Amino acid sequence: MVKFSGDGADPRVTRTRRDVVRESATALLEDGWAAMTHAEVAKRSGYSKATIYAHWPTPFDLARDAIEQICEDTTHPPAGGDLRTDLHAALTRLAETLADGRYDQLMAGVITRAGDSDDARDLRDRLYENATRGIRGILAEHLAPDDVAPSLSLLIGAVLVRATYEGVPVTSGFLDDIIQRVLGARR
Fold first, then answer.
1. Which among 28, 46, 112, 125 has most CB atoms closer than 10 A?
2. Rounded to 5, what percent of the chain is helix, strand, coil?
3. What is the pTM for the complete model shown?
4. Where does residue 134 rank: exposed (0-12), middle (13-18), buried (19+ CB within 10 A)?
Protein backbone atom coordinates (compact mmCIF):
# COMPACT_ATOMS: atom_id res chain seq x y z
CA MET A 1 0.00 0.00 0.00
CA VAL A 2 1.25 3.46 -0.84
CA LYS A 3 1.52 5.44 2.39
CA PHE A 4 2.61 9.03 2.53
CA SER A 5 2.26 10.10 6.11
CA GLY A 6 2.17 8.81 9.64
CA ASP A 7 5.35 6.82 9.20
CA GLY A 8 7.63 9.35 10.91
CA ALA A 9 9.12 10.48 7.61
CA ASP A 10 10.28 13.99 6.89
CA PRO A 11 7.27 15.89 5.45
CA ARG A 12 9.35 16.87 2.42
CA VAL A 13 10.09 13.22 1.68
CA THR A 14 6.41 12.38 2.12
CA ARG A 15 5.43 15.16 -0.29
CA THR A 16 8.06 14.08 -2.83
CA ARG A 17 6.92 10.46 -2.72
CA ARG A 18 3.27 11.48 -3.05
CA ASP A 19 3.97 13.79 -6.00
CA VAL A 20 6.15 11.30 -7.84
CA VAL A 21 3.74 8.40 -7.35
CA ARG A 22 0.79 10.49 -8.57
CA GLU A 23 2.73 11.61 -11.66
CA SER A 24 3.89 8.03 -12.27
CA ALA A 25 0.28 6.82 -12.10
CA THR A 26 -0.83 9.52 -14.52
CA ALA A 27 2.05 8.74 -16.88
CA LEU A 28 1.32 5.02 -16.78
CA LEU A 29 -2.36 5.54 -17.54
CA GLU A 30 -1.82 8.17 -20.22
CA ASP A 31 1.27 6.90 -22.00
CA GLY A 32 1.69 3.30 -20.89
CA TRP A 33 4.76 1.44 -19.83
CA ALA A 34 7.07 3.48 -22.05
CA ALA A 35 6.54 6.38 -19.63
CA MET A 36 7.92 4.36 -16.71
CA THR A 37 11.44 5.71 -16.94
CA HIS A 38 13.21 7.74 -14.32
CA ALA A 39 13.84 10.51 -16.84
CA GLU A 40 10.18 10.74 -17.90
CA VAL A 41 8.86 10.67 -14.34
CA ALA A 42 11.44 13.28 -13.29
CA LYS A 43 10.32 15.53 -16.13
CA ARG A 44 6.65 15.12 -15.29
CA SER A 45 7.02 15.47 -11.53
CA GLY A 46 9.61 18.24 -11.41
CA TYR A 47 11.98 16.23 -9.23
CA SER A 48 15.50 15.19 -10.20
CA LYS A 49 16.33 11.75 -11.56
CA ALA A 50 18.66 11.29 -8.58
CA THR A 51 15.77 11.85 -6.19
CA ILE A 52 13.62 9.39 -8.06
CA TYR A 53 16.37 6.77 -8.22
CA ALA A 54 16.88 7.17 -4.46
CA HIS A 55 13.28 6.16 -3.75
CA TRP A 56 12.60 3.88 -6.73
CA PRO A 57 15.77 2.12 -7.91
CA THR A 58 14.07 0.51 -10.93
CA PRO A 59 11.30 1.49 -13.34
CA PHE A 60 9.34 -1.48 -12.01
CA ASP A 61 9.46 0.08 -8.53
CA LEU A 62 7.87 3.22 -10.00
CA ALA A 63 5.23 1.15 -11.80
CA ARG A 64 4.43 -0.90 -8.69
CA ASP A 65 3.72 2.20 -6.61
CA ALA A 66 1.85 3.82 -9.51
CA ILE A 67 -0.39 0.77 -9.87
CA GLU A 68 -1.00 0.70 -6.15
CA GLN A 69 -2.03 4.36 -6.35
CA ILE A 70 -4.35 3.63 -9.29
CA CYS A 71 -5.95 0.81 -7.29
CA GLU A 72 -6.37 3.02 -4.23
CA ASP A 73 -8.01 5.72 -6.35
CA THR A 74 -10.53 3.30 -7.87
CA THR A 75 -14.09 3.51 -6.65
CA HIS A 76 -16.90 1.03 -7.19
CA PRO A 77 -20.58 1.89 -7.36
CA PRO A 78 -22.35 1.34 -4.04
CA ALA A 79 -24.50 -1.77 -3.87
CA GLY A 80 -28.21 -1.16 -3.39
CA GLY A 81 -29.23 -4.73 -2.62
CA ASP A 82 -30.78 -5.74 -5.95
CA LEU A 83 -28.52 -8.31 -7.64
CA ARG A 84 -29.26 -7.45 -11.27
CA THR A 85 -29.32 -3.68 -10.77
CA ASP A 86 -26.08 -3.75 -8.79
CA LEU A 87 -24.36 -5.98 -11.35
CA HIS A 88 -25.53 -3.73 -14.16
CA ALA A 89 -24.07 -0.64 -12.44
CA ALA A 90 -20.77 -2.36 -11.62
CA LEU A 91 -20.38 -3.84 -15.10
CA THR A 92 -21.23 -0.47 -16.65
CA ARG A 93 -18.42 1.11 -14.62
CA LEU A 94 -16.01 -1.62 -15.74
CA ALA A 95 -17.05 -1.15 -19.37
CA GLU A 96 -16.52 2.61 -19.14
CA THR A 97 -13.08 2.06 -17.64
CA LEU A 98 -12.15 -0.33 -20.42
CA ALA A 99 -13.62 1.91 -23.12
CA ASP A 100 -11.24 4.75 -22.35
CA GLY A 101 -8.38 2.38 -23.28
CA ARG A 102 -6.13 3.13 -20.35
CA TYR A 103 -6.90 0.24 -18.02
CA ASP A 104 -6.66 -2.46 -20.68
CA GLN A 105 -3.34 -1.00 -21.82
CA LEU A 106 -2.15 -1.08 -18.21
CA MET A 107 -3.33 -4.66 -17.73
CA ALA A 108 -1.78 -5.77 -21.04
CA GLY A 109 1.58 -4.40 -19.91
CA VAL A 110 1.38 -6.27 -16.61
CA ILE A 111 0.29 -9.49 -18.32
CA THR A 112 3.20 -9.21 -20.76
CA ARG A 113 5.65 -8.84 -17.88
CA ALA A 114 3.99 -11.47 -15.66
CA GLY A 115 5.55 -14.36 -17.55
CA ASP A 116 9.00 -13.36 -16.34
CA SER A 117 8.42 -11.98 -12.87
CA ASP A 118 6.69 -12.94 -9.65
CA ASP A 119 6.42 -9.21 -8.88
CA ALA A 120 4.62 -8.59 -12.18
CA ARG A 121 2.30 -11.53 -11.51
CA ASP A 122 1.49 -9.95 -8.14
CA LEU A 123 0.65 -6.67 -9.90
CA ARG A 124 -1.50 -8.52 -12.43
CA ASP A 125 -3.39 -10.18 -9.59
CA ARG A 126 -3.74 -6.84 -7.77
CA LEU A 127 -5.18 -5.14 -10.85
CA TYR A 128 -7.62 -7.99 -11.47
CA GLU A 129 -8.72 -8.03 -7.83
CA ASN A 130 -9.17 -4.27 -7.92
CA ALA A 131 -11.15 -4.28 -11.17
CA THR A 132 -13.44 -7.08 -10.03
CA ARG A 133 -13.82 -6.36 -6.29
CA GLY A 134 -17.20 -4.65 -6.55
CA ILE A 135 -18.67 -7.30 -8.84
CA ARG A 136 -17.24 -10.12 -6.74
CA GLY A 137 -18.77 -8.57 -3.60
CA ILE A 138 -22.18 -8.25 -5.23
CA LEU A 139 -22.11 -11.86 -6.39
CA ALA A 140 -20.93 -13.08 -2.98
CA GLU A 141 -23.94 -11.44 -1.31
CA HIS A 142 -26.42 -13.24 -3.53
CA LEU A 143 -24.90 -16.49 -4.81
CA ALA A 144 -23.62 -19.70 -3.28
CA PRO A 145 -19.85 -19.54 -2.71
CA ASP A 146 -19.14 -22.09 -5.46
CA ASP A 147 -21.07 -19.98 -7.98
CA VAL A 148 -19.20 -16.71 -7.40
CA ALA A 149 -15.94 -17.37 -9.30
CA PRO A 150 -17.51 -18.90 -12.44
CA SER A 151 -20.19 -16.18 -12.59
CA LEU A 152 -17.53 -13.49 -12.14
CA SER A 153 -15.43 -14.96 -14.95
CA LEU A 154 -18.37 -15.13 -17.32
CA LEU A 155 -19.51 -11.57 -16.62
CA ILE A 156 -16.05 -10.01 -16.67
CA GLY A 157 -15.04 -12.04 -19.71
CA ALA A 158 -18.06 -10.90 -21.71
CA VAL A 159 -17.43 -7.23 -20.93
CA LEU A 160 -13.69 -7.54 -21.54
CA VAL A 161 -14.12 -9.22 -24.92
CA ARG A 162 -16.78 -6.76 -26.06
CA ALA A 163 -14.91 -3.63 -24.94
CA THR A 164 -11.33 -4.54 -25.80
CA TYR A 165 -11.11 -7.36 -28.33
CA GLU A 166 -14.20 -6.51 -30.36
CA GLY A 167 -13.95 -2.76 -29.73
CA VAL A 168 -17.73 -2.54 -29.61
CA PRO A 169 -19.59 -0.39 -27.08
CA VAL A 170 -20.96 -2.28 -24.10
CA THR A 171 -24.61 -1.27 -24.21
CA SER A 172 -27.19 -1.53 -21.49
CA GLY A 173 -28.98 -4.19 -23.53
CA PHE A 174 -25.79 -6.23 -23.83
CA LEU A 175 -25.30 -6.07 -20.07
CA ASP A 176 -28.90 -7.10 -19.42
CA ASP A 177 -28.41 -10.05 -21.76
CA ILE A 178 -25.20 -11.34 -20.21
CA ILE A 179 -26.53 -10.88 -16.69
CA GLN A 180 -29.63 -12.88 -17.65
CA ARG A 181 -27.53 -15.60 -19.29
CA VAL A 182 -25.21 -15.93 -16.29
CA LEU A 183 -27.86 -15.71 -13.61
CA GLY A 184 -30.63 -17.51 -15.47
CA ALA A 185 -33.86 -17.58 -13.51
CA ARG A 186 -32.32 -16.39 -10.23
CA ARG A 187 -34.20 -13.61 -8.53
1. 28
2. 75, 0, 25
3. 0.79
4. buried
